[in-house]
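Category: protein sequence paired with discrete backbone structure
Discipline: computational structural biology
Format: plain text, a pair of labelled lines
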Amino acid sequence: MSEQPILELDDVTIQYRTAGGMLTAVSDASFTIGKGEYFGLVGESGCGKSTIAKTLIGALDDNGQISSGEIRYKGEPIQDYTEKQFNQELRWKEISMIPQGSMNNLDPIEKISNQAIEIAQVHTDMTRAEALERFEELFEVVGIQKSRIHDYPHQFSGGMEQRAIIALALFLNPSLIIADEPTTALDVIMQDQVFKYLDEIREEGGASMVLITHDISLVFESCDDIAIMHSGQIAETGDIETIYDDSRHPYAFMLKGAFPDHRYPDRELEIIDGYPPENMGEVNYCTFVDRCPYAVDECREMAPELEQWEGTESDHLVACFRSEDAYEEHQRSMPESDSESTEVHGDD
């Protein structure tokens, strides 16, 4: 990559202290995000996506900790930042977050405009009038009348609260936006409007985004690169076209097959049996092993490392001991029309 990445995770393990011992939510996770890049982080509920999101803004729960690895923002290690450092140097103005759902994310006894003014006063030299004007603009962007910036959160519906939170996250033009299921409470039209604006701010200011979702199709439509997680481990990473056309980890191609594809309306969707495990202590095995139809003993004996997929020029990394054999077996089991290579069609 010619210029310095905006965000790098190197072998990051995140654990929670519980009555039963150390629960490993993220195990040796690694990925890199460039300036202006929209990066999708995909996986089932409980796979560690939201834990990574909270970690990036220093908002882990009190019983959470980064046990190993390094997180760098614009080249600066931040995994040991204090609460004060996050507040003074990163939150809102450098890294902002659109949290999952709107409940408990707005102060119920403060007008929303006052919450925006407080953010501006702490992190910028904007005047009160400038802050209100900027916030009115963002309310119009997310489809709310600008006069309603002076309402209290309880006067909004759930969907309107979520849009207000999106406006707050974009308020100070951050360099990196962490979007955790950002449009779940919005209708399709409003989702499109929000992502259109996100695309505009990327073009204008080079903002980057981590889009965290269980919906792999949303990432295929909106992002440049993707990482697919299963129960704390990164299973596969690469650019959107590569993962769409040529995913090689069993969890990745089975997850892709579990979503409808308009090209094959009569295709039976794949089912991934079982549930992700709860990992305690060191994770020295593949977390997909009990759900994987292609697993062998080796998958239970050590954790596979992310390695470059042979024959690709792009950064296509796969963490699987049997990726080649599993892919071939899977392709043979697919209807001929489904197994043919296809191209991604989109605005990019």
The radius of gyration is 21 Å.
